[in-house]
């Protein structure tokens, strides 16, 4: 009712929309890209597109859906584009394996705990988890490679993370307390 | 949002989300779910498990204000024919913004060497606190000590400000040096484990792995693994010794190595590590000596071994331990 008497400007609604969704969209984009900076760019782009379409789209009703869909689309494009680059990164990583391992040793205690937690996973579960986490493979790629259904990959991944969470509960609590204070 | 409530949120879906497999609808459903109750904590535990693995990039939420400013600047301006008045206003605003930016730049420049500090490890100061910094470096802060980190930590470097005593296990990163500020003393690291302790009139830096550089305005000193560097602020002196006292950092490592050590010295280390007070009931007890190695053992275990070895007895009350016995001759 208020809005009829004192209609908000499009900019105000847009600002509100940004406030409500920005951080969540960024986290979503991050899960898709695994890159904080790229995720920021994508979300910025999505909001610019929304602004350009503000006459066609009802910001209050459909703005949110539009943003999530646009973010996913942009991320998938970048992901495809990056595949080449990632391939390169893998080969670089492989040649510098020694150095990489060296860095790992610096944090031996935590590193050991994580290895132990991963060893606790059932073999099949571990194989799938490693493919996703270390080889950065998509669920569909893993399913095709192992000749299993995507659903199975999903279930095994969920199971793996659940076990990891339980195994590493003490380390995680510490980091969460820290993160809360780092914000 | 009733629209999304059909999507059930469970670990499998949350894992899908973290793995970058969630559809826009699923992501929206998860974000709605996260607004309720303690769901966010549940999610963060899962996210942490996901990110703990090496090589993983940790998620960092951007600053909304900054992002909004960037977005607003990028939005195509809504064109309207400018009247003279509007033009004047526009130039005035532009001039003002330029002024503010210049001012901000100058401020940043002048204060570049003075970082903005913020509190790192929370928790009661009477406890030993352990944690991991955003870059993965491990820290242990002793009782009555505080650690703060620079607001721009991990940007160009990794600055922390220590008061009291702390143990650092620094993740190697040649691009971003890790620098501990402790009064006028700075300790720079590329990747190593070391302990910094502010004592009365001196700061003691014990290096257990790698190499660090201690420096002040006028002096510098390289301290390698197995060495101890001491800073005396009164005379601005940096001293090097070719040994480390592993027992002095037991609060962090949980490692005790007593080699033919006198009972008072052993008690001193135990007091330091476990935050207790140990009283020898008679003077002869000072003659007792002992060799032992303990790794991650509780105080009660160590005390039991000691009493069996030295034929002494002890009683504990309110973190005060009394030791009695005939002494060792």
Summarize the structure.
The complex is a heterodimer of chains A (183) and B (329). Chain A is mostly helical.
Please write out the topology:
The complex is a heterodimer of chains A (183) and B (329).
Chain A: H1 2-5, H2 10-33, H3 36-52, H4 59-95, H5 97-106, H6 108-119, H7 123-133, H8 139-146, H9 150-167, H10 169-182
Helix pairs in contact in A: 2-3, 2-4, 3-4, 6-9, 7-9, 8-9
Chain B: H1 11-18, H2 24-34, H3 39-51, H4 64-74, H5 84-110, E1 117-119, E2 129-132, E3 138-141, E4 146-150, E5 158-163, E6 165-169, E7 178-182, E8 185-189, E9 193-199, E10 202-209, E11 211-215, E12 220-224, E13 228-232, E14 237-241, H6 250-253, E15 255-262, H7 263-274, E16 277-280, E17 289-295, H8 299-310, E18 312-317, E19 320-325
Helix pairs in contact in B: 1-3
Structure description:
The complex is a heterodimer of chains A (183) and B (329). With 183 residues, chain A is mainly alpha-helical. Chain A folds into two domains: 8-93, Rna Polymerase Sigma Factor, Chain: A, CATH 1.10.1740; 108-182, Winged helix-like DNA-binding domain superfamily/Winged helix DNA-binding domain (Arc Repressor Mutant, subunit A), CATH 1.10.10.10. Chain A contains ten helices and no strands. The longest helix of chain A has 37 residues, at 59-95. Chain A is elongated, with a radius of gyration of 21 Å. Residues 1-6, 92-106 and 179-183 of chain A have low confidence and may be disordered. Chain B folds into four domains: 2-51, no CATH class; 67-110; 120-247, Jelly Rolls (Sandwich), CATH 2.60.120; 254-325, Phage tail protein beta-alpha-beta fold, CATH 3.55.50. In chain B, 30% of the residues lie in helices and 31% in strands. In chain B, strands 1-4-5-7-8-11-12 form a seven-stranded mixed sheet, with no helix packed on it. In chain B, strands 2-3-6-9-10-13-14 form a seven-stranded antiparallel sheet, with no helix packed on it. In chain B, helix 1 (11-18) crosses helix 3 (39-51). At the A-B interface, helix 2, helix 3, helix 4, helix 5 and helix 6 of A face helix 1, helix 2, helix 3, helix 4 and strand 2 of B. Chain B: Keywords: Membrane, Transmembrane, Transmembrane helix. Chain B: The chain crosses the membrane at residues 88-110.
């Amino acid at each position: 009712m208020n809005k009829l008497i004192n209609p908000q400007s499009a900019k105000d609604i847009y600002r509100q929309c940004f406030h409500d969704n920005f951080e969540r969209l960024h986290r979503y984009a991050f899960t898709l890209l695994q890159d904080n900076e790229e995720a920021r760019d994508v979300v910025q782009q999505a909001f610019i597109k929304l602004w350009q379409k503000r006459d066609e789209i009802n910001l209050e009703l459909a703005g949110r859906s539009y943003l999530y869909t646009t973010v996913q689309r942009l991320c998938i494009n970048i992901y495809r584009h990056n595949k080449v680059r990632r391939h390169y990164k893998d080969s670089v990583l492989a040649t510098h394996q020694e150095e990489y391992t060296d860095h790992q040793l610096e944090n031996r205690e935590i590193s050991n705990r994580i290895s132990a937690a991963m060893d606790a996973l059932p073999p099949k579960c571990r194989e799938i988890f490693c493919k996703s986490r270390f080889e950065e493979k998509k669920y569909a790629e893993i399913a095709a490679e192992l000749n299993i259904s995507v659903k199975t990959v999903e279930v095994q991944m969920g199971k793996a993370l659940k076990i990891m969470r339980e195994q590493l509960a003490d380390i995680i609590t510490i980091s969460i307390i820290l993160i809360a204070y780092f914000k | 949002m009733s629209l999304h409530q059909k999507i059930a949120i469970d670990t499998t879906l949350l894992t899908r989300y973290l793995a970058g497999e969630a559809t826009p609808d699923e992501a929206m459903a998860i974000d709605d779910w996260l607004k309720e109750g303690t769901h966010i904590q549940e999610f963060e535990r899962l996210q942490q498990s996901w990110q703990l693995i090496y090589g993983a990039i940790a998620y960092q939420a951007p600053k909304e204000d900054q992002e909004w400013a960037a977005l607003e600047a990028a939005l195509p301006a809504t064109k309207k024919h400018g009247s003279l008045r509007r033009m004047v206003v526009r130039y005035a605003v532009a001039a003002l913004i330029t002024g503010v930016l210049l001012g901000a730049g100058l401020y940043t420049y002048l204060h570049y060497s003075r970082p903005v500090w913020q509190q790192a490890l929370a928790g009661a100061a009477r406890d030993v606190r352990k944690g991991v910094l955003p870059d993965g470096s491990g820290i242990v802060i002793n009782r009555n000590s505080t650690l703060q980190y620079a607001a721009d930590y991990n940007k160009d470097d990794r600055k922390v400000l220590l008061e009291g005593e702390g143990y650092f296990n620094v993740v190697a990163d040649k691009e971003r040096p890790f620098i501990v500020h402790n009064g006028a003393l700075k300790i720079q690291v590329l990747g190593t484990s070391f302990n910094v302790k502010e004592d009365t009139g001196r700061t003691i830096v014990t290096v257990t792995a790698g190499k660090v550089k201690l420096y002040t305005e006028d002096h510098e000193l390289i301290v390698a693994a197995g060495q101890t560097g001491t800073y005396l602020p009164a005379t601005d002196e940096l001293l090097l010794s070719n040994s480390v006292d592993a027992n002095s950092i037991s609060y962090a490592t949980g490692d005790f190595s007593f080699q033919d050590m006198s009972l008072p010295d052993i008690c001193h280390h135990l007091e330091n590590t476990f935050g207790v007070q140990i009283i020898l009931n008679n003077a002869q007890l000072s003659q007792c000596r002992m060799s032992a190695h303990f790794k991650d053992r509780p105080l009660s275990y160590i005390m039991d071994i000691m009493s069996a070895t030295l034929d002494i007895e002890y009683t504990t009350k309110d973190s005060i331990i009394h030791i009695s016995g005939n002494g060792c001759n």
